[in-house]
Design a protein that fits this description.
The chain is an all-alpha fold and 68 residues long. It is 53% helix and 0% strand.
Amino acid sequence: MDVLYIIRTSLDEETLSATDMVKADKNLSQVEQAFGSYKTVDLKVRLIYHYTAERVKAHIYLCCLIIM
């Protein structure tokens, strides 16, 4: 069975070539996997004893950087 996969963009060929467009689309699976880590035990975030929202966000951000 043949499968046809179409990728459409509003960018012109000079801005983003067809090859680069396919590469960017395939990289989306990595982004989806990273978002999936937030909902599983991959992130391994324990109790956080910070008192401001900015510090909690920074803590989670640093945990994400360690994973990658």
